[in-house]
């Protein structure tokens, strides 16, 4: 029914001098399939297979379903270079992140009903082999951000955990009423305190050896 392509650009918004693009264009097709629309997106740099979204319109509502990857539940849907985030401006341009952001899901859906979003299913973003220009360490570690929805309409749960690495981060929160509330803490593994001191000062409020992270 419709196809097109675009260059994805991240920017800090009006007045920002920061912007970053990915090395290849995003291509998409939109087709009618039964009573729903199927959107398939493909990007050579970042997707091994097309990413599929099913759109189910209804009376006063719209449901968007993220389809699992062809490789099975939990397989990577897409991955992007962490350096892409520098286009958002502060603090990302200061952090100068390296590594890879990998998205996976066993099935996730977002439904808007009378202006209210209801999230169900699970989506996961793995931050692999992360690094920062603010640290002398080659890698900070690898981390996992999870979003777990609730079909009853309650707030979706979010969590951040450390898979491995010198920078230890843990936190929990919720996504409700289109707002994210998150509380976490970061610390340095023994022997890495000096190499991570500047980074810990930036990502949160220092309290002794800890850096406290609060959003919302």
Notable traits:
16 strands; single chain; 2 helices; two-stranded antiparallel ribbon; mainly beta
Assembly type of the shown chains?
single chain
* Mean pLDDT across all amino acids: 91
Our measurement of the CA-to-CA distance between the termini, rounded to an integer number of angstroms, reads 41 Å
Poorly predicted segments:
none
- What's the total helix number? 2
Strand content: over 45%
Helix content: under 10%
Morphology? globular
Category by helix and strand content: mainly beta
Radius of gyration: 19 Å
Largest sheet geometry = 14 strands, antiparallel
Number of strands: 16
Order of helices and strands: EEEEEEEEHEEEEEEHEE
How would you portray this structure in words?
With 216 residues, this protein is mostly beta strands. It has a domain at 72-215. It has helices spanning 92-95, 193-203, and strands at residues 2-6, 9-11, 19-21, 26-33, 36-42, 51-58, 61-66, 76-81, 97-113, 116-132, 141-148, 156-165, 167-176, 179-188, 205-207, 210-215. Strands 1, 4, 5, 6, 7, 8, 9, 10, 11, 12, 13, 14, 15 and 16 form a 14-stranded antiparallel sheet that branches. Strands 2-3 form a two-stranded antiparallel sheet. It is globular, with a radius of gyration of 19 Å. The model has no long low-confidence stretch (mean pLDDT 91).
Secondary-structure topology with pairs:
Elements: E1 2-6, E2 9-11, E3 19-21, E4 26-33, E5 36-42, E6 51-58, E7 61-66, E8 76-81, H1 92-95, E9 97-113, E10 116-132, E11 141-148, E12 156-165, E13 167-176, E14 179-188, H2 193-203, E15 205-207, E16 210-215
Antiparallel strand pairs: 1-4, 2-3, 4-5, 5-6, 6-7, 7-9, 8-9, 9-10, 10-11, 11-12, 12-13, 13-14, 14-16, 15-16
């Amino acid at each position: 029914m419709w196809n097109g392509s675009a260059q994805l650009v991240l920017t800090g918004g009006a007045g920002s001098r920061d912007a970053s693009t990915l090395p290849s264009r995003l291509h998409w097709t939109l087709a009618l399939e039964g009573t729903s629309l199927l959107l398939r997106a493909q990007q050579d740099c970042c997707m091994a297979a097309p990413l599929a979204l099913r759109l189910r319109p209804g009376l006063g509502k719209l449901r968007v379903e993220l389809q699992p990857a062809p490789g099975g539940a939990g397989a990577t849907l897409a991955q992007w270079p962490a350096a892409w985030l520098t286009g958002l401006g502060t603090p990302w341009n200061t952090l100068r992140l390296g590594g890879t952001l990998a998205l996976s899901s066993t099935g996730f859906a977002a439904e808007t009903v009378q202006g209210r979003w209801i999230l169900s299913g699970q989506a996961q973003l793995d931050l692999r082999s992360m690094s920062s220009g603010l640290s002398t360490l080659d890698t900070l570690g690898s981390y996992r951000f999870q979003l777990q929805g609730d079909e009853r309409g309650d707030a979706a749960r979010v969590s951040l955990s450390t898979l491995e690495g010198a920078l230890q981060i843990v936190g929990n929160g919720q996504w409700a009423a289109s707002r994210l509330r998150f509380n976490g803490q970061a610390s340095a593994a023994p022997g890495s305190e000096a190499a991570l001191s500047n980074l810990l000062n930036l990502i949160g409020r220092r309290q002794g050896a800890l850096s406290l992270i609060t959003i919302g």
